[in-house]
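Lecture notes, unit on protein representations.

Consider one protein chain, 121 amino acids long.
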Amino acid sequence: MGLGHSDTGMMAEDVVFTLMATGQEYRGREGASQMFEYFYRAAFDARAESSKLVVADGIAVFEGDFVGEHIGEFAGIPATNRSVRVPLCVVYDLENDEIKRGRIYFELPVLVRQLGLETSS
């Protein structure tokens, strides 16, 4: 699941993850863990498939896809049991070999379309 998503031990105690599409923030290891549990186990049965991971001094970038099945309520939408594959990018700020901040770029319009909820314009 990207860089350390399943292992909160790689995260700083005061880590902050931000969903860039909404501005919603998840703070601390517990907050980050709850967010990932919700996205990857409760609302979806999913995993992140990496296509690229670049790590440099103080920064890492994960690019890939969020892949799985919509199994629970998400943003007020009941489970559709549809398969999804959504482009995903996470930019990490690293400090002392830990994730200090993560900025999550998740293609919500792609997800909405795959869940069959696209409205006509």
